[in-house]
């Protein structure tokens, strides 16, 4: 479904950094508390502050640590609606991938997007203030995007798990 050149662009830049037990402990601490001071982090993993900071900076540079962020409760700020939207693209239109990616990057309602296998090309996580806001987004923007053939939406009734750790899935430390 995705042309070879587009697929290569999507998966470019993946590298695997060799992580030891200390790196994994640092990651667990940061995952638990991204606001921890370097001094406290170093103490918790039994390193000097300078050695700890060097390791953190290296993991940031290598893309192991992608960033730090504040997690906002959507409902507390009036964003009540969430849906997973499967999007299938028209096979007869060329170069739809780049224009679709540019479009979803500009839509604040799309909070996550994945390229997938199966009957659809993408799965979007869409947030909206209400069902009316979601409907307006789908009808007036998503369906009008270049190359979109069809969408299939599933309304999220409840979120049972979010932000699970990937550290336990990682290969054993060196």
From TrEMBL:
* Molecular function per GO: sequence-specific DNA binding
Show the Pfam families listed in the entry. AsnC_trans_reg, HTH_24
Q: Which residues form the HTH asnC-type domain?
A: 19-80
Q: Which SMART domains match?
A: HTH_ASNC (SM00344)
GO terms under cellular component: cytosol
One biological process term in Gene Ontology: response to amino acid
Supply the alphabetized keyword list: DNA-binding, Transcription, Transcription regulation
In terms of PANTHER family, this protein maps to: LEUCINE-RESPONSIVE REGULATORY PROTEIN, TRANSCRIPTIONAL REGULATORY PROTEIN
Name of the protein this chain belongs to? AsnC family transcriptional regulator
- Its source organism is Burkholderia pseudomallei (strain 1710b)
């Amino acid at each position: 479904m995705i042309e070879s050149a587009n697929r290569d662009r999507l998966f470019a830049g993946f590298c695997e950094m060799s992580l030891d037990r200390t790196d994994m402990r640092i990651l667990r601490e940061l995952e638990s508390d991204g606001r921890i001071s370097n001094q406290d982090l170093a103490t918790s993993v039994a390193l000097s502050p300078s050695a700890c900071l060097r390791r953190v900076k290296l993991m940031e540079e290598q893309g192991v640590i992608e960033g730090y962020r504040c997690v906002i409760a959507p409902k507390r700020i009036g964003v009540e609606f969430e849906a997973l939207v499967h999007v299938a693209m028209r096979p007869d239109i060329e170069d739809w991938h780049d224009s679709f990616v540019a479009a979803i990057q500009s839509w604040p309602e799309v909070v996550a997007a994945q390229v997938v296998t199966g009957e659809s090309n993408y799965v979007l996580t869409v947030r909206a203030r209400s069902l009316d806001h979601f409907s307006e987004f789908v009808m007036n923007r998503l369906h009008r995007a270049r190359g979109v053939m069809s969408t299939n939406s599933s309304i999220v009734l409840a979120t049972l798990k979010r932000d699970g750790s990937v550290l336990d899935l990682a290969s054993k430390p060196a």
